[in-house]
Amino acid sequence: MESTEIFSGYITWIITLVVFLVLLAPQIFKILREYERAVVFRLGKFQSVKGPGLIVLIPFIDKVERVDLRVLTINVDRQEVITKDNVTVNVDAITFFRVVDAEAAVIQVERYIHATSMLAQTTLRSIIGQVELDELLANREKINKQIQQNIDTQTDPWGIKVVSVEVRDVVLPENMKRAMARQAETERDRRAKVINAEGEFQAAERLVDAAKMIETAPAALQLRFLQTMNEISEENATFAFLPLPMDFLEAFRKMNGGDSSSDKKE
């Protein structure tokens, strides 16, 4: 009888100890992944940064804040911004950042992800308001770099490194889209006219060179005349072609020259 009571007492103590360990084990032992760090506070004071792997804590005394060291992504909501040249546009962006100092990220700022998101929104509005629309559309990489540097400067005391910022979309008003389309069409017309004028100028230069060459070799004009006749005869034309020798025109020119000289003598 006494042995049974002793055995029951042992069982009771063993069960109590097992339950106690099961309840305390999560408070004593924690396992952190490779990309995680634990900021440990002991009685409310910062103790250390631990991890990765297995860490041991004092139950009910140590409190832990887990910090993810991977690159995090924030989608900056679409913002309505007025550019430097007073054009209203809607822009949104994506911010990539990571925690490089777990202690500062937990102690220096409350909810560092939310704080970085709010800072990205205000910085995006500020930078876009300082540039003109043409610069925003043409120099997207430069603006992304400027936004990234501004955010990174302000988040550096928080232990956060902003990897990059990408302006994803720029939405223009419909009237501005139509104005830009008319501008692009006018620019294309201008280029077409300039190209046409340059072609006419080059053609005129070549014609002048050809005229000078023909002047030194009159037979070249006769050959060109015969070539033109050959080209016309190959086409299915409905008109008659009557060639005249070049000397025939020269005779009329000499006659006019003779008449003018006789008039001068009189």
Give an overview in words.
The chain crosses the membrane at residues 6-25. The protein has 266 residues and is an alpha+beta fold. The radius of gyration is 44 Å and the shape is rod-shaped. Helix 3 (112-128) crosses helix 5 (140-155) and helix 6 (174-216) packs across helix 7 (218-234). It has 4 domains: 2-68, no CATH class; 72-172, Tetrahydropterin Synthase, Chain A, CATH 3.30.479; 174-215; 217-232 and 241-266, no CATH class. It has 8 helices and 8 strands; from the N terminus they run αβββββββααααβααα. 14% of the residues are buried. The chain has helices at 2-28, 102-107, 112-128, 133-138, 140-155, 174-216, 218-234, 246-265; strands at residues 29-32, 36-42, 45-50, 53-56, 62-68, 72-82, 88-99, 160-171. 57% of the residues lie in helices and 24% in strands. Strand 2 and strand 3 (45-50) form a beta hairpin. The model is unreliable at 260-266 (pLDDT under 50).
Number of domains: 4
SS strand fraction:
15-25%
Oligomerization state = single chain
Helix/sheet category: alpha+beta
Largest sheet: 3 strands, antiparallel
> Largest beta sheet: what is the strand line-up?
3-2-5
**H/E element order:** HEEEEEEEHHHHEHHH
Question: Given this structure, which CATH class of the largest domain is correct?
Answer: Alpha Beta
Radius of gyration: 44 Å
InterPro entries: Band-7_stomatin-like (IPR043202), Band_7 (IPR001107), Band_7/SPFH_dom_sf (IPR036013), Stomatin_HflK_fam (IPR001972)
Transmembrane segments: 6-25
Keywords: Membrane, Transmembrane, Transmembrane helix
Membrane topology: Single-pass membrane protein
